[in-house]
Amino acid sequence: MAVKKFWGRMSKKARIAIITLICLALIATGVGCFNIADPPHVELAPEALWHIGGFPITNTMISAWITIVVLAVLCYFATRKMKLIPRGLQNVMEAGVEALANFVDGVAGEEKGRKFFPIVATIFIFVFANAWLALIPGFISIGFWHEIHGEEVLVPLFRGANTDLNVPLALALISFVFVEYWGIRYQGFLRYMKKFVNLGNLVGSAKQLARGKVKSSLGLLVNGAIDAFVGLVEGLSELIRVVSFTFRLFGNMTAGEILLGSMMFLIPWVVAIPFYGLELFVGFVQALIFSGLTLVFVVMAATSHEEH
């Protein structure tokens, strides 16, 4: 209370001067620690902490489990005593779910949106939670000292799950499977596969050639070659999506982790704070991009060419 009264009696200029001095002192402390602190150890692959029956338990795996547990606990407490007029945690969770539902419905429409919502929302929440939990103090800095190539290196106990290439790859494969599933579900197997393998014009060319109509046969043959090329491009684009999804999320999250580690090593405290804000924003954007692109591709797969 005494500090609060003292602060309230001070002029605006005095407050600014004190805050500036504190910031300068923290920066000076960080600069003074430049030669003392150990530089961040950059390791792209997740580090194995233990082995259970030959199966490695990595630090990113532990972080992913923590994310699942945290989300489960939040959902439990948010829905434990649900009320007609939500308050507190229930209100926050319902607002988030409603925002996601409106986003999905706005792209896919209400009928399809309700069917696509579970997978899109799950991807968004999991990526988003992984990214934000990795910014909690203790991630990367708490771990075990191991000797690697004759050098003592800190192996972190926790590491952001999104920085493990396996996690973005698994999410990309799940996205790919659901896109193909809903495409087949809405259009039927044969109609959907026509997007990749369309032999109609080639068959028609062969029939026209058998009837002696060479001119019309050549026209259909050219169109059939174009259809085959387009189908090949469509098939490659479906596979390339898996690669682009994987490396976009992995690259951005890994770069953010390295950036924060480098800034904390160079000038800790004040200078690193803006980068925390940047990573909070990047985590949200990456979750939105991953889930949003999944939603767009699902809608495109479930829509026939006539509807396009």
Q: How does this structure look, described?
A:
With 308 residues, this protein is mainly alpha-helical. Helix content is 70%, strand content 7%. The chain has ten helices and four strands, in the order ααββαααββααααα. The strands form two sheets. A two-stranded antiparallel ribbon has the order 1-2. A two-stranded antiparallel ribbon has the order 3-4. Strand 1 and strand 2 form a beta hairpin. The radius of gyration is 27 Å and the shape is elongated. About 3% of the residues have low confidence.
Low-confidence stretches: 30-37
How many E-type strands? 4
SSE pattern, N- to C-terminal: HHEEHHHEEHHHHH
Structural class of the helix and strand makeup?
mainly alpha
Number of helices: 10
Strand order of the largest sheet: 1-2
Biggest beta-sheet profile: 2 strands, antiparallel
Shape: elongated
Task: Give a short synopsis of this structure.
The protein has helices at residues 2-9, 12-32, 59-79, 88-108, 110-133, 166-187, 189-193, 200-210, 214-266, 273-302; strands at residues 48-52, 55-58, 143-148, 151-156. The chain has 308 residues and is mainly alpha-helical. A hairpin with a 2-residue loop joins strand 3 and strand 4.
Give me the secondary-structure topology.
Elements: H1 2-9, H2 12-32, E1 48-52, E2 55-58, H3 59-79, H4 88-108, H5 110-133, E3 143-148, E4 151-156, H6 166-187, H7 189-193, H8 200-210, H9 214-266, H10 273-302
Antiparallel strand pairs: 1-2, 3-4
Main attributes of the structure:
7% strand, two-stranded antiparallel sheet, 10 helices, 308 residues, two-stranded antiparallel ribbon, mainly alpha
